[in-house]
Amino acid sequence: MPTVDLATAPVRELNAALHSLQPSTNETVWRVQNPRGQHAIAVGLDAPVTVEIDGSVGYYCAGMNKQATVVVNGSAGQGLAENMMSGRVHVKGDASSAAGATACGGLLVIDGNASARCGISLRGLDIVVKGSVGHMTGFMAQAGNIVVLGDAGDALGDSIYEARLFVRGTVKSLGTDCIEKELREEHRMLLRSLLDAAGLPDVDAAGFRRYGSGRKLYNFHIDNIGAY
Amino acid sequence: MCGIVGLFLKDPKLEPRLGRLLADMLATMCERGPDSAGFAVYGNEADGRVKLTLRLPAGASPAPVLDAIAEASGQPVESAARDTHLVVSVPEVRETAVRAMLATMRDRVAIVGAGRRMEIFKEVGRPDDVAVRFGLAGMTGTHGIGHTRMATESAVTTNGAHPFTTGPDQCLVHNGSLSNHNALRRELIRSGLRFETENDSEVAAGYLTSKLREGRTLREALNASLDDLDGFFTFVVGTDTGFAVLRDPIACKPAVMAETDDWVAFGTEYRALVDLPGIDTARVWEPEPATVYVWERT
């Protein structure tokens, strides 16, 4: 198994090595040591490999990820898995703001809490946060799912489009044009599959509430001027 | 952008290492603020004496200034020269006389800060260089705050560097920008405060000083600032016994904190904290928006 120690190797060297992997590579499991909060670790991967990082990472870890599985045995800074396209990112600790920003696909699992603007402008990624999320989570989210086992901060789902938000705990406040919606059987089935994918088979899908767009802000309307 | 570091020691055994730890933290934040840097260190105090941190022009001999201070304070003066800065210890009862004398030398000597325990240093230049020039790594104390600056609201000058101090043993560093600082500065000037710069962050420091003068606690003063300051901010504040952190309600300026039984630390990024002793088992968290965090020495 290739091991890269970031106490001695620069992040660019690690990323260049990961970028050069072919789909048929036999080096499918990579270990990264001493990340020490450095930025842009394991960014832009596009191969079916697993990268396990021992420690906490800085900004943009696993950004633009395709196919790869990235595991962080620590916490992550801002912009975790931003613009991710596919694959899986799993953070064992907390994630800072804008986790999963603009991401299009794949699964992001955060074992701890995610702070403000988790899933901002989400476009198809599924996010499962086992702890709580900060304010403005799901801001302008267009597609994809955000599942929160804990609580949500202020202005959940502000200006949301068609992403689905599921929260098991309390919601401090809903953002503009975000409303609570009925949790129907189809949503319970969706939740079940997301919870199973996140390794949470014992969590009851019926214990969540669903939030989504009130669809009042899709197009500019003069009557809504106060809401813009 | 800007970078902030802060370290508040709970275990006195670490006090000899405060400067070393703070210098390493500051160096990691060079990229966030390469144009200037500064720091405040809360060190020893002596009964009945106050420390003035002065700034002289580069290369100027401190001897004439020290002679004049000795005359104004009526006794020989204890001093320590560090690059462009000079820390002098004068009897508290003579502080007014010394300040009056220093006012006559205003063209040559600037008062950077004052307090029973606080010493404050700031200069234009790369933060790691600035720390070496002032000998930060050799300083001791109970707590300290540092800042690396990338100026956005005012000029890159020594006076524009952080920390800002507007009261005894009080200092503030700021990441962000305030939008109502001009109006607030006018109000604070009317209430008797003086400002050295056009900088928005100095207004935040002055605001807290005005609240502390009214008898508010540090926590109360910071809570009040949430109503009165408009803009983006992460503040780290020091007083002779206290260390406090506050982020604005939007909280788009990054902040990470860590705490063990031995210390509390603040870093704009986690990178600033990775060399602290025991970081691997520390409680690490992101301070909540619009929430005041205060630690006080007992």
Chain-wise SSE layout:
The complex is a heterodimer of chains A (228) and B (298).
Chain A lengths: L2 E3 L5 H9 L9 E5 L16 E5 L14 E4 L15 E4 L15 E4 L12 E7 L13 E6 L15 E4 L10 E4 L3 H13 L11 E5 L15
Chain B lengths: L2 E7 L8 H11 L7 E7 L6 E7 L7 H11 L4 E5 L2 E7 L3 H9 L6 E6 L2 E7 L2 H8 L8 E7 L14 E4 L2 E9 L2 H10 L9 H14 L4 H11 L2 E8 L3 E6 L8 E4 L3 E5 L15 E3 L7 E4 L2
Antiparallel strand pairs in B: 1-8, 1-14, 2-7, 2-8, 3-5, 3-6, 4-5, 9-10, 10-11, 11-12, 12-16, 13-14, 13-15
Helix pairs in contact in B: 1-4, 2-3, 5-6, 6-7
Radius of gyration of chain B: 18 Å
CATH architecture title of chain A = 3 Solenoid
Task: List the total number of helices of chain B.
Answer: 7
Strand-residue fraction of chain A?
Answer: 15-25%
The whole-angstrom Rg of chain A is 18 Å
> What is the terminal-to-terminal distance of chain A?
53 Å
Average pLDDT of chain B works out at: 96
How would you characterize the largest beta sheet of chain A? 11 strands, mixed
Number of strands of chain B: 16
Uncertain segments of chain A are none
Report the helical percentage of chain B. Answer: 10-25%
Question: Pair with the most extensive interface?
Answer: A-B, 17 and 14 residues
Features:
heterodimer, A: 228 residues, mainly beta, Pectate Lyase C-like, 11-stranded mixed β-sheet, 2 helices, 10% helix, 22% strand, B: 298 residues, alpha+beta, Glutamine Phosphoribosylpyrophosphate, subunit 1, domain 1, VC0802-like, 2 domains, 7-stranded antiparallel β-sheet, 5-stranded antiparallel β-sheet, 7 helices, 25% helix
Description:
The complex is a heterodimer of chains A (228) and B (298). By secondary structure, chain A is mainly beta. Chain A has one domain: 3 Solenoid (Pectate Lyase C-like). Helix content of chain A is 10%, strand content 22%. Chain A has two helices and eleven strands. In chain A, strands 1-2-3-4-5-6-7-8-9-11-10 form an eleven-stranded mixed sheet, covered by helices on one side. The radius of gyration of chain A is 18 Å and the shape is elongated. Chain B has 298 residues and is of the alpha+beta class. Chain B has two domains: 3-44 and 124-296, Glutamine Phosphoribosylpyrophosphate, subunit 1, domain 1 (4-Layer Sandwich), CATH 3.60.20.10; 46-116, VC0802-like, CATH 3.30.2130. Chain B is built from seven helices and 16 strands. Chain B has helices at 18-28, 63-73, 95-103, 127-134, 181-190, 200-213, 218-228; strands at 3-9, 36-42, 49-55, 78-82, 85-91, 110-115, 118-124, 143-149, 164-167, 170-178, 231-238, 242-247, 256-259, 263-267, 283-285, 293-296. In chain B, strands 7-2-8-1-14-13-15 form a seven-stranded antiparallel sheet, with helices on one face.
